[in-house]
Amino acid sequence: MRVFPDIHQLDGIDCNVFVIIESDGLTLVDTGMPWLTKRVLAGIQALGHSPQDIRRILLTHQHIDHVGGLASLVQLTGAETWAHPADAPAIEGRAAREVPRGAMGLLFRTVLLPRLRSAPITHRVSEGETLPVLSAEGGLRVVETPGHTIGHISFYLPARKLLFAGDAVRSEGGKLTPPPAVFSLDMPMALQSVRKLAALDIDTCLPGHGAPITSGAQALLAAIGSAPALSKA
Questions:
Q1: Residue among 29, 17, 78 at smallest CA distance from 51
Q2: Where along the chain do its domains lie?
Q3: Residue-averaged pLDDT of the chain
Q4: Contacts for 39 with CB less than 8 Å, ≥ 6 apart
Q5: 226 HSE (CA, 13 A, CB side)
Q6: By the 8 A CB rule, do 72 and 51 touch?
Q7: What 3-state DSSP class applies to 26?
Q8: Which of 62, 99, 141, 146 lies at a CB distance of 3.0 to 4.6 Å from 87, suitable for a disulfide?
């Protein structure tokens, strides 16, 4: 699905995988589940590009639906990878993965995580760093948005007032909502991250789940933070 002429969302993937098209190659934001890599590659080809055009992979966080295809894509393309230092060890297989609490956590440990391969992170990035993506417009800026995971990050392009939000928020019925508590490490922290995003000048929000919000995103973010049940969190 075309979001903008140079930004596309791949269809048929369990999380939103975005492709940024530039003259020097492609950048992916997140990768989908391990068993959906063929769909990612098919989506790249449908855009008129080859897998080898993938130069960079930006990871919002360590959850399997966002990093599951990373190992295969890196092996195939040699792409460089970016993630936050707090989530990088889990992605690389050097630390335990965060999983949901209770029965859902058991499902992750016994069924999902065994299908996940680790992959190297070539660049660890933190708050305020600017990435070499869309550099002609000033580059993507890293915004630390922890809570869903300890090292969750979002990517912000001030020149377009555009945010790749990952799972800091999700889109439902034209509104933005916080991440589900069952899948989040620390909900008060996650809600604080939403309020942080609401303070930025954001018009377009491209979340990790749900339809892109292409206008009016700042008001939707502010509405989350001002909700009575959340403002006490």
A1: 78
A2: 2-231
A3: 94
A4: 10, 12, 13, 32
A5: 8
A6: no
A7: strand
A8: 62
